[in-house]
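ok so i was messing around last nite and threw this chain in just to see what happens. nothing serious, just curious
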Amino acid sequence: MTLVEHLEELRRRTIISLAAVVVGTVIGFIWYQSSPPGLMPLGEIIRRPYCNLPAELRADFTGEGECRLLATNPFEMFMLRLKVGALAGLVLSSPVWLLEIWSFITPGLHKNEKRNTLTFVTLAVGLFVAGAALAYFVLDKGLYVLMSIGGEVQVGALSGGSYFNFLLGLIVVFGVSFELPLIVIMLNLAGVLRYEHVKDKRRAIILGLFIFAAFMTPGQDPFSMVALGASMSLLVELAFQVCRVHDKRRGRERPEWMQLDDEVASGPVEPAGPIGTSAVAPGGAFERPGPIARPEPVDKPAPRQSLSGGAFDDIL
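result:
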């Protein structure tokens, strides 16, 4: 394909992906308040961790004990519904735009590259979903810790926008953090990181992961930090075990001399013998070579006749 054909294909696949996201956003916008039988509305799913708080920790704006988020400007309710619908549309349309990206990239990949890419993309999506699910369940406990601090003086009245941003930030942090073991495995497969580099540094790595969790969690509550740090430590340990098995398998497939550095010799260098001589056993003798066979003489061509005399007569 020419460059123009590639650009046309990219434009077509981009339009299809955007159309799928728009359709998914419309579905999510409707699903925010109205849901099909057997499903919970998106608005109810989002506010459930907040509504699970005890009644004395959240403000009652209806006078009937109903759980409602606070809106501080006229457009906040509409924007919250639009944000939730857009996020739901992005998730609902993910099979379409992922397929379009895959169809655009794979023609330039070999068979093994397609298989490896599909495996890593599947693992990446699965890890992100697992992190997002853990963040949603952690929010229930973490929000209780945050809202109960100073409950004797204040009462929680969260606005819809701030609550959604907090939930979205927690989901993104957990989802992206769960990609760390996949990065470790990729570095190991590329030969950059080996198991022997990290096998004696587990304590420092775990400490670094907990420090990372303390800084990256939006609320900085202890429950969220412990949950993120412990889950990342477990996943990184699983990644280290995968690296250990891969290094052992690669060591069996490669000879020992290929494991040496470029500046290290593969063994002692022995002095070379004299050039042009051959070893003769003691007491042995050289055999006298026989006469060299001379080539037989080649018959010489007959001498040319002179062109004098009758030679001219013959030609005429």
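not much to say yet. DSSP finds eleven helices and no strands in the chain.
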